[in-house]
Amino acid sequence: MSIDRANLEAISGMTSAHPILETVRRAAEVIPALGERRLLHAGPPIEWERMSGPLRGAVIGAALLEGWASDAGAAEQMAAAGEIAFEPCHQHAAVGPMAGVISPSMAVYVVSNAAGEGTAYSTLNEGYGKVLRYGAYAPEVLDKLRWMNDEMAPLLAAALESEEGGIDLRALIAEALHMGDEGHNRNKAGSLLFLKQLAPRIARVATGRALEERTLAFLGDNALSVLNPVMAACKVMADRAHGVEGSTLVTAMARNGTDFGIRVSGLGDTWFTAPAATPHGLYFPGFSAADANPDIGDSTITETVGIGAFAMAAAPAIVSFISGTPRDALDSTLEMYEITSAEHPHFTIPALDFRGTPVGIDLRKVVELGVTPRVNTGIAHREAGVGQVGAGLVRPPVELFEAALLAYADRYNL
Question: Is the pTM of this model over 0.85?
Answer without folding.
Answer: yes
